Amino acid sequence: MAGELSFTRVLIANRGEIARRIQRACRKLGLEAVAVFSEADRDTPFVAEADYAVCIGPAAPAESYLKVDAILEAARATGAGAIHPGYGFLSENAEFAARVEEAGLVFIGPSPEAIARMGSKIEAKATAEAAGVPVLPGYRGADQSDDRLLEEAQALGAPFLVKASAGGGGRGMRLVTDPGAAGEAIAAARAEAKGAFGDPTVFLERYAPRARHVEVQVLGDAYGHVLHLGDRDCSLQRNHQKLIEEAPAPDIPDALRSAMRDAAVRLARAIGYRSAGTVEYLYDPTRAEFYFLEMNTRLQVEHPVTEAITGIDLVEWQLRIARGEALGFAQEDVSFDGHAIEVRVAAENPAENFRPETGTITLWAPPGIVRLDSGVEEASVVGHHYDSMLAKLIVHGADRDEAIRKAVAALDEFAVGGVGVNLAFQRALITHPDFVAMAHYTASLAEMFPCGWTAPVPDDETRALAALALHLHLAPAPDTPWQSLAAWRLTEAAGRAGAACYWSDDADAPIRVAGQGARLKVILPDGTALGVEAARLTAQRLTGRMDGAPFTRRAHVLRSGDRWQVHLSAPEGMTMVPLRTLEDRHLQRASGAVGGADTVRAPMPGAVVEIRVAPGERVSKGKTLVVLEAMKLLQSLPAPVAGLVAEIYCAPGDTVAGGAPLVRLDPEDRT
C-alpha cells in the first residue's frame, strides 16, 4: 500500500460517538464524511453532522451495520474513496477489509492479512511467541479432541481458563478451579463459541487470579515504521467489559514497562502492521511478569487517554497513514505528559444488575471543563438495539491523584435526565480505596462491592434543597397579580403566605416549603424545620443560606412524566430526587395509576427471546417467566408474586415496547 493515495471523502461504517469522533478528524484534514445509518438512527447527531448520509437498513445490526454489500453500495453512491470501520461491528473483520480493497477503496486500518492473523487467538499467540513476546503457559494445539484437551488440562493444573479462539468480550470463556469440572467447562465453552462466532475451537491457558489488564498503543505506517505511544491500564472491568481506563498504566516497574512496550513494537513489526493498533497483556504483579493476551487490530474505545498524554491525534494519523503518508515523527519524539482517565457513560442501572435503560434524554448537561466524546445530546432517543455506552468522559491531570480529583469533579457536575445512567456507580469506583491505591485487578469488582453496589440515598439536606429548588422553579415572579389577586396554585392561598407540599417516592409525608420572599422555611417529613434565607435558582445554580450556612449546588429542574425531577449536586455526587406536587398527587389518584403487582411488564423496549411458563402453571415468587433481549444483554424477568399464570401476552420473537404487559398472574393469596 506504500505510495500516495488520494481520497477526499470517507465513509464511516459505524455509529454513535465513534462516528462523530471520526467526523471531527476528517474535518481537521479537510475531508468530507459520509455517515451510514440504520432506520433507528435516522435522527441521531452523527447523521445530522455528516456531509452525506445514507440509510442502509433496519435497526438490527445484521441488516444494517453488519451488511457489507449495503455499506459498499453506499460508498459507491456517494463517491467515498475510503472506509473507516471505527470499533466493533466490522472493524476486525478481515473479509470486510478485503472486500473494501477489492472494490478499489482504501480500508482505513491494517491489511486484511494482519487482521486475520491476529483474529485467531491461537495463531496470534503463536506469532507473539515467535516474536519473543511472553505468553501464558497452556495448550493451543490443533488437536481439539476431548481426550487431548482433558489430558492437557490435567497437565496444566487448576486454576486455568478455557477460551474460544475466535472469541472476545468474555464469550466462550470458562474458569476451571476444580480439575473434575474440566470436561463440562470445555463443552460449555465450545458450545458458546460455536453459537457466538461460528467456530468451536478452544484453547487452555493458566489463570492468573489477581492480574491486571495493561495494553500498549502502537502505530505503524506502510513503510515499515512502527512505534509505541505508551501504555494504558484497563483493569476495572465487569464481565470482561472495561469500565474505566487510564494512561499511563500506574505502578509498573520501569524495566517491565519498557519490556512491554518493546514487545508490542516487535509483534507489530513481525506482522507488517500499519495504522493504529493495541497489544493487550495480562500483568501479574505478584510474579512481576506480563503475558500476551491479544492484539486489537483497530482503534480502541479508550484511545482518548493516549491522545491526552501524548498530544497525538490517533484518528488523524489513521487517515494520514491510509492515504500513504509516512509517520512524521520517531519514537524519541514521543513524550508523555501527566495522567489521563476515561470514564464510560452508559445507559444502565448498576444497582439492578446493570439493567439497560432506554427512553428519551430530557436533560444532557455535561461538565464544560473536560473532553466528552458523546454520541447523544438532549432529545436523543436511547433504544434497545445497540450497545449501552452513550459517551466517554476524559480528564487530564499533572499526575494520577489530580486526574482522579478532576474526574470526580466532572462526574459531580454531570446531569442526565430521562434515561438512567451509571455516573453514580462510576464515581463510587473511582473514589474506592482499592482504585485509589491501585489494589484493584480485572476481577476485583466483587471484592470492592461484596454485597453489590447500592445507589446512594440523598440525605435530608439534599432532599430539602431539592424541594426548595422545585419550589423556586414553580414560584411566580414576586409582586405579580398572581399573588395579589387570586390563588395562583392549589398550594398557596391568595393574599397570605402558604405552604407548598412536595412528595418523594419513598416518603408518606411531604416536604413543606413555607413563607415568602427572602425568608422561607423547609419542613422535613419528620417535622425538622430548616430556615432558608436569600434562596435563588438562576443559571442552573441553587444558592442561599440554610440555618445560617451558605450553600451552592448545581441544580436542574425538569418535568418527567407524572412527576418532577430535581438533579442536584450533593456530597455523594450528582443526585436525582423525584418529587410530586399536591396537584400531581391529585391527578395520580384521579387517573387510577397504580402498580399492578400481578403483571410482569417489559422494563424497556426489547425482543422476547424465551417464555419459560405456560398458562395455568403454578409459579413461585422469583421464578423466571420471560427472557428479554435489549442492548445486547439478556434480561430474566421474574415473577413478582407466587401464583398461577393467568395470561401470556407475547411470544418468542416479538418486539415489545417499554412497559408492555408480558405475563399476568393470579396471585397465590387470591387463589
UniProtKB/TrEMBL annotation:
Residues 6-450 form the Biotin carboxylation domain. The keyword Glycosyltransferase does not apply. Its cofactor is biotin. It holds the Pfam family Biotin_lipoyl. The keyword Acetylation does not apply. Residues 125-323 form the ATP-grasp domain. Keywords: ATP-binding, Biotin, Ligase, Nucleotide-binding. Residues 591-666 form the Lipoyl-binding domain. This is Biotin carboxylase N-terminal domain-containing protein. It comes from Aquibium pacificus.
